[in-house]
Amino acid sequence: MEYINNNTYGIHLLFIPSDFICVFPENLRGQFISAHKGFLTFNATTITGYTTTVPNLPVVSWECQIKEGNKYKLQAIESTATFGGTLFLHLCLEIHAVSENKFYYYLGTNRHSFAQDYVEGVIATDATTALNDVDNSCNRAEPYNPGSYILLVKDGSVESGNATIQCPTDLLAVFSGVNITNSAGTKEYCEDTTLDVCNDRTMLNYTYNDTCSTVKTYSAGGVYSCVYAIEDSGTTYLGVWNNDTTVDDSTTFRFTCYAFQKSGGIVYATEAPRFCNDSDQTSTAVGSINGGNIIELYNIIQTCLDVESTTTTSPTTTVAPEEVVPASLDLLALLPLILLIPLFILLFFLIKRYVIPKIKARKKEVVITELRKLIVSLSASVVL
Domain limits of the chain? Predict the structure, then answer.
């Protein structure tokens, strides 16, 4: 904090470092969709729509109180009366920007066993007193598991293509074998079900067969858009958007997270609803909190790593008219150079025929003159 005393104008200015002012990132304004909490509305200092599972306190609004780097410490605007005072909730989010349409964040607060949510509660006489404990809201052990990020995308940005990415390289193929085991342990061998990531490299497109009539992924239609991926210790954590028109947050979810590894020609993956588990989700185990599916992808019948050589699955590229250069224009551009070549050849022979002999003759005359001078000088020396 810097204090400047300007006596000239009698003005005292107090400059506060930006981290002391709790303001959300500039592009994080308006309506966004969280993989964890659904629709949220951001303004400069508040979040609306961030609900909790705390009994008798379905909080919907939070106010940013302290900013430290990427960490934002918030206090719930709503509160509820309890024994001995009023219950206030605190929350810590570590927010990272990917683009103006896409962010991700980590939950910096431990999951509370009573609240069954990632919040911290404090009993105080009023909101101002409760703020004394907001600094303790970032109580989750660090470093955070990179794969436990939670996606936050601007409303409409996935549908417009502004928040999607090309799916990770290990998935760029067509798999004709798909095995799915759900969280209840029911496994189905869906040999006639396919996963196509070549027709559109930004999408996972399952075509369910009757052999997968009971167990499916968390998308009824089987079509996901790839949104963000992080690789950590050989495992890729891929956040995807379910393109189903509606979801029920029970058997289908708007966001899911794939943790996968490829070994030989088989991709081993787990799918968790909403976001990947904090510490115990791997490519073969779904973890203990969110449940999920275990998926095996095998029998690759087509790959699409090389965009140019895979013409059957590559999107058609149209060259703009101004980029097309006719061959006749290329020849016209080279015409001056072609005409100069005979001139250079003629100049070379003229120099060789007339100029070089004169230079040699001139050099010979100079040498003879110098020799004569030397002989005269030597003769004079002998006479003396």
Answer: 2-154, 169-303, 325-372
CA distances from 42 to 29, 165, 233, 376 (A): 5, 24, 34, 105
Place of tokens 């008798």: 56
Which two three-digit tokens encode residue 87?
């219950």
| 169-303 CATH pick, 2.40.128, 3.30.70, 3.30.980, 2.60.120 | 2.40.128
Tell me how far apart the alpha carbons of residues 75 and 86 are, in angstroms, rounded to a whole number: 13
- What does the pLDDT profile of the chain (384 residues) look like in tens digits? 332 333 333 333 333 444 558 999 999 999 999 999 999 999 999 999 999 988 878 888 999 999 999 999 999 999 988 888 899 999 999 999 999 999 999 999 999 888 789 999 999 999 999 999 999 999 999 999 999 999 999 999 999 999 999 999 999 999 999 988 887 777 766 667 899 999 999 999 999 877 666 668 999 999 999 999 999 999 999 999 999 999 999 999 999 999 999 999 999 999 999 999 877 889 998 877 667 899 999 999 999 976 443 333 333 332 333 333 344 434 445 556 666 677 667 666 666 666 567 666 666 665 566 656 655 565 555 555
